[in-house]
């Protein structure tokens, strides 16, 4: 696939400044566009826990082996694409849509609407397709869960990884008719992408189709030695149509609103190099999965009637690019991130003056905070001078840190590990108790202030 003149990505710029997973890069460091929310749509490449536990292998052992140490709804041994994008933005990985009703106060980072196994059209797994997922966000906007201002500072990510084409083939579709079907998929994607933007989201990130002929479900036929180039050619056709569609959409908006995330190139780079460009990650057999089934009818996570695993797991998932027959490992996703150092969207990053403006803005914010601090100190001294009128009342805590009810969830736990509804409900119960206590303190302080006013008027 020819390289794009807009080539993307917000999150993959990390490799230019950070090759280590231990270095935290915030969303405010380099870009003029500073999204604070991430809305995710798509399939298992971005799903972080939406699929029902009763249906999805992502909720079975050994998924989640590396992170968070147990099955958590991700189709990998650990983190997936969504987690890395959110990390670059400097926000928490957005909460899966299926549990948002249990944690309505946890939506400030956005929502993940992606469901594993789904596609642009229905794929037969009885989970919401892309159009329906977008409808979920539209409903939340209608219910005023998110405002226009929220949407204006958000980024949308859409992953389409080929489930439509698998469903087409499984339902009897022929290779001869596949190009026409690919065209219809991309046409519907175009409609859906425009719909997301029309909701008020200024930037929409969409992946190119990965080289599907290199997935272990096909390379197993060659003992994991070579890719199926026929299938890769079909992926290239999909990507060419998608690039044309994105160019048209951007021309219509007169901005680089729709940004391609080139998974096709990045996957190929990692597979060819047998590792990432930094040399930190090595994959000796990149086409072979870490988790492999022991029978032809089983898959990773399958058990026999006695509860015995029908799969084997490699000893070092970090040395394998693929986790199962379709999905990368956490190390694989990291390598994808690290392999695309030249693929940043420079529309917002190539101007030193813009960076300097950002630094100046942050300096102004710090100066404003210092002014507020000095003002509060003056107020504290003024009230201390009148303290002899107030008997046993002490206002130091109140004046140094005024009560702010919106801060009641500032210390919220990282929900990456909160894959269980019961844990979320416990968290909500704890927060409710904290808020009630804060309200009692607030009422007491208000009463105190009234008393002060009465004393001053005596």
From TrEMBL:
<dbReference type="Pfam" id="PF00657">
    <property type="entry name" value="Lipase_GDSL"/>
</dbReference>
<keyword id="KW-0443">Lipid metabolism</keyword>
<dbReference type="InterPro" id="IPR001087">
    <property type="entry name" value="GDSL"/>
</dbReference>
<keyword id="KW-0732">Signal</keyword>
<keyword id="KW-0442">Lipid degradation</keyword>
<protein>
    <submittedName>
        <fullName>GDSL esterase/lipase-like protein</fullName>
    </submittedName>
</protein>
<dbReference type="InterPro" id="IPR036514">
    <property type="entry name" value="SGNH_hydro_sf"/>
</dbReference>
<keyword id="KW-0378">Hydrolase</keyword>
<comment type="similarity">
    <text>Belongs to the 'GDSL' lipolytic enzyme family.</text>
</comment>
<feature type="signal peptide">
    <location>
        <begin position="1"/>
        <end position="20"/>
    </location>
</feature>
